[in-house]
Specification:
Elements lengths: L13 E5 L6 E2 L2 E2 L3 H15 L3 E5 L14 H11 L4 E2 L6 H8 L6 E3 L15 H5 L2 H6 L5 E4 L10 H9 L2 E3 L1 H15 L6 E5 L4 H11 L5 E4 L1 H10 L15 H18 L3 E2 L3 E5 L5 E5 L12 E2 L1 H12 L3 E5 L12 H11 L4 E5 L5 H5 L9 E2 L4 H7 L5 H4 L5
Parallel strand pairs: 1-4, 1-7, 4-6, 5-6, 7-8, 9-10, 9-15, 10-11, 15-16, 16-17
Antiparallel strand pairs: 2-3, 12-13, 12-14
Bound molecules: adenosine-5'-triphosphate (ATP) and 3-phosphoglyceric acid (3PG).
């Protein structure tokens, strides 16, 4: 490991901890999700270790409906940690400092949404962020800074890069496990076949992954909107926006040439769907072989069952499988066959596996699969795709400094 961890932390420290509790908010209610569960491990370990634990996190972006206070988050963290979590509606003003200073050993306090502090955003160099009033005011009240927010570490924001230059900095448990698993495709050698399942809505994610990992990955199994764009580049009559849709046209214009040349250069490694699923006139799932599609008359919402039958043995023969993006609109049960099929195959083998993408990993609990059957289920979205493609994460880089 290239950074210090909680194992290196001295005893009885005043610790400032950055978590990523950014969560869906429905009708003003913050939704519990696996980020709380994962970070609870770090928070519990610190509190039980007798440290004074002050937590920072963000929620939403200024102007958005989900840009809300962290008051509800405190209750959810408390439930997961199994200990009381105090909350103060202030980021670094007098109220926050008073609350920090009155904390006893083993107690936990959550500060207000870091993005309510003007200096948190925008993205700037770590040195600039370290120099902000926010960082300069808070840092002297602490002995150590712990960053556990791997999933936000691609942002060069004050709470993610500034404190690491002012305080001894450590990686939390989530930071450690996410970093190790998500970087493994770029850093580890596998004996057998390495397979990558790529889908979702963003063609550029798939293109970046192929460009960066083409020499590490034996087979790319495609699906989702991105997969349809590759099918279209291969000469099939799919991947068109019908009235009211805006998935394909812009992405096609922007990426057509790149996709065509990837198919030219890496065609042997790229497996495309041989059949697709759609909603039929009775609102049921219908399937059609790609070779039989002659008209652009309907949206396709999943890969078909023959495709799953072809992908399944490839996964079962693999030494390592990485997943980025869903193979279909899995939130609708009728179109979950592709995504659930590949996840099921992964869960039934003992290959090394990493499943990522904020949306895709939700399919695991939604369809009753057990997270323990996967090597690692990432809680990161943007940070995951960057890690896969070997791009540095600002919040990780500063932890690597002495
Ligand atoms: N054919 C399709 N039609 C419509 N939606 C699709 C289709 N295939 C996949 N999706 C949608 O793609 C979404 C996942 O795509 P996304 O690119 O966001 O991937 P992710 O990696 O899970 O998430 P993120 O990048 O947000 O962390 C799913 O919610 C799924 O409903
Ligand atoms: O939820 C996330 O992916 C991270 O918290 C980053 O959030 P952001 O995209 O609003 O910076």
């Amino acid at each position: 490991m290239t950074f210090k961890t909680l194992d290196d932390l001295e005893s009885e420290q005043r610790v400032l901890v950055r978590l990523d509790l950014n969560s869906p908010v429905e009708d003003g209610a913050v939704q519990d999700n696996r980020r709380f569960d994962r970070h609870a491990e770090t928070v519990r370990e610190l509190a039980e270790g007798g440290h004074r634990v002050v937590l920072m996190a963000h929620q939403g972006r200024p102007g958005g409906d989900d840009f809300v206070s962290l008051e509800q988050h405190a209750g959810i963290v408390a439930d997961h940690v199994g200990k009381d979590v105090k909350f103060v509606a202030d980021t670094y003003g007098d109220e926050a400092i008073d609350a920090i200073e009155s904390l006893d050993a083993g107690e936990i306090l959550l500060l207000e949404n870091t993005r309510m502090c003007d200096e948190e955003l925008p993205e700037e160099d770590p040195e600039v962020k370290a120099d902000t009033e926010f960082v300069q005011t808070l840092a002297p009240h602490f002995d150590a800074y712990v960053n556990d927010a791997y999933s936000a570490a691609h942002r060069s924001h004050a709470s993610l890069v500034g404190f690491a230059l002012e305080l001894p900095a450590y990686a939390g448990r989530v930071m450690e496990t996410e970093y190790e698993a998500n970087s493994s495709i770029a850093t580890r050698e596998f004996d057998g076949q390495v397979t990558m399942v790529v889908g979702g809505t963003k063609a550029t994610d798939v293109i970046d992954v192929m460009n960066n990992l083409g020499d590490k990955v034996d087979q790319f199994l495609l699906g989702g909107i991105a997969g349809e764009l590759f099918l279209r580049a291969a000469g099939n009559d799919v991947g068109f926006d019908l009235e009211g849709m805006d998935f394909f046209d812009d992405q096609w214009e922007a990426n057509r040439e790149t996709i065509e040349s990837l198919l030219d250069e890496r065609g042997d490694q790229i497996k495309l769907a041989v059949d697709l699923a759609y909603e039929d006139e009775n609102d049921e799932r219908g399937e059609i072989a790609v070779a039989n599609i002659t008209e652009k008359d309907r949206p396709y919402l999943d890969v078909g069952s023959t495709t799953v039958d072809e992908y399944d043995p490839i996964i079962r023969d693999s030494e390592a499988v990485f997943v980025k993006g869903a193979l279909g609109l899995f939130e609708d049960e009728r179109f979950a066959v592709g995504t659930v099929g590949v996840l099921q195959a992964i869960s039934e083998t003992d290959c090394f596996s990493v499943v990522g993408g904020g949306d895709t990993s939700r399919a695991i609990e939604m369809y009753g699969m057990d997270e323990a059957d996967f090597g690692h289920v990432s809680i990161a979205g943007g940070a995951y795709i960057r890690a896969l493609t070997g791009a540095p994460l600002a919040g990780v880089e500063v932890l690597k400094q002495d």
